[in-house]
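Exercise 7. Predict the joint structure of the components listed below.
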Amino acid sequence: MKNSCYIAGFSYFVPEGVLTNRDLERFVDTNDEWIVSRTGIRQRHVAGGQTCSDLAYEASRTALQRSGLEPGDITHIITATFTPDAYVPNAACVIMEKLGIRGIPAMDINAACTGFVYGIELARGLCQLSSGSRILLVASEVVTSRINFKDRSTSVLFGDGAGACVLTRESPGGGIPAGYIEDVLLRADGSLGPLLTVKGGGSGYPLVLGETVGDDFFVQMEGREVFKHAVRSMRDVSMDILKKNNITADDIDLFIPHQANIRIIEALAKLMHVKEEKIFVNVHEYGNTSAASVPIALADAWEKGRIRPGQLVLMVAFGGGFTWGATLIRF
Ligand code: ACO
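Solution:
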């Protein structure tokens, strides 16, 4: 079948440490009421010493078990992250070593919060190149490593975590729950990049030996502008993928949007005329975990019984770059 690709083994892992809004009140000028009313976030998990690859390893192990595969069965590893353990080696190589895998391609992609959806399209392409492809796609972020906890406009928004799955050309069978990737649409617009950045340490903003890092080492964001673009872009790409597939929002059983802010999700739902009960939300528990947000929500929804065989799921994400994208999955 043309473009055949299945997704299975959904799993997520968040570090044990929890930072509540009340905890934040102790070191940044904010309060629980402001954070909840403006974002919906009540707490976030923080890695506290664990790295991107540590979180990815935990999520990946469970994803492999749930897809009935051993690490040695995997043919490619793709990691979506903007917070790898190091620039070199890439996160995928570190993760493969932890999983005990050698000799297969291992690559990172950075599309900020849209990284997982970009990864699905990349995996779909690899499945067409080789019918035996069994791709581990893991999105993992220690966003708090790039958060300035003195900046109240960003420090309340983000959390750490990882989400993983396996993508294969053939249906995994054997009673393993899987979704068929019906379509993926990806977009980007570099002219909007300056609205959301993590610049320090890049070759355009090199660090100097002995000097401390500046504000630009951390996430910097024009919150209001990002908000408007996030709503508009996720609405547009969702409507485009529905139209391309000759369906409407009524045909979708569950919407899984990027978990950045409840007000973004509500605005998106309103524009698309989608009822609250069809939208999966867990931003109150995890905050914005960037690329990990969508796969964490997917695995969480699946574990909570919100996804049943035969259902059609629309996942949509938006992130720095700007990047955005949507995917339709039939379970
Ligand atoms: N606590 C208390 N007050 C605060 C805080 C805080 N943490 N942060 C800002 N404020 C104050 C501001 O200083 C401002 O005060 P002023 O009116 O006296 O100047 C007031 O609250 C309003 O600030 P705004 O920035 O206008 O607040 P807004 O309602 O736009 O909410 C927010 C800010 C939550 C950042 C919102 O704009 C947003 O969610 N934007 C999108 C951010 C996002 O989702 N980014 C990620 C998407 S892409 C990706 O995931 C990488």
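Discussion. The domain at 179-330 is CATH 3.40.47.10 (Peroxisomal Thiolase; Chain A, domain 1).
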